[in-house]
């Protein structure tokens, strides 16, 4: 049993609603939840059970958690859909299977906290769809990105058709699926898959450091970034401006926001440093 749940105090949801999975490690480290796909022998391929375990993990994070890291054990982040479970499905069953993935990855993207993905090795197919549902992606130099669905005679079904073009553009995604093109870590950073690239073996440490930094933000600011920003980006501009104003008004009214601004004005908070100093 590889499930490690160090903190069962969970006011957000009853702890007993958690579906333990032997293939998912959950380690609560203070304000950061470290969640790891743990099926290295199968390259962390996403069985239905593992997809549901990811959903449950994000649904049941303890209220003390302020950010999460999502990574994979072994040599690869994730080999995508578990192809051994790919059955003959009629159209209705295929629809529901895809919608099950959508519901699970929706809990990652629109869950309670920002999620930093630590990527290495294969980030392919449904693994790339899962990474795209996270808020920050850190990739090490071993990472590579592909959408082999094109060659397997299938299509993306885990939200990739919506999320991946927003990272790299529809033209690049079309090319990847039509031609089987694989992006290496450097090309992937340039294309927009990852916001950070680090030397081999350092993705997890960098992701954890970023998550710890994210966890220090005022909770309402993180809420606005996870829940409001992507929706504002989808709204027509005039509606987006109004949603932005409403969110800004709510965030700045929090006592924590007022205290943070006061701390700066009284010289007790960090100044913004030049990029070369950070
Ligand atoms: C798997 C899977 C998998 C590995 N489902 N079992 N995804 C793909 O098409 C990618 C398929 N996988 C690969 O291309 C390679 O495995 C990797 C590049 C990821 C890794 O290569 P490597 O040499 O390190 O490992 P391997 O020897 O290929 O695999 C080790 C074992 O994992 C082996 O099983 P074994 O019993 O022979 O040891 C593989 O069969 C197994 N394995 N990947 C099942 N994906 C919501 S829709 C999403 C649609 C998709 O994601 S389609 C894309 C699926």
UniProtKB/TrEMBL annotation:
Task: Indicate, by first and last residue, each region the UniProt record lists as having compositional bias (Polar residues).
Answer: 7-20
GO MF, one example: lyase activity
Q: Coiled-coil regions in this chain?
A: none
Q: Where is this region: Disordered?
A: 1-22
Biological processes per GO annotation? fatty acid beta-oxidation
Alphabetically list the UniProt keywords. Lyase
Q: Name one Pfam family in it.
A: ECH_1
UniProt family annotation: Belongs to the enoyl-CoA hydratase/isomerase family.
Q: What is this protein called?
A: Unsaturated acyl-CoA hydratase
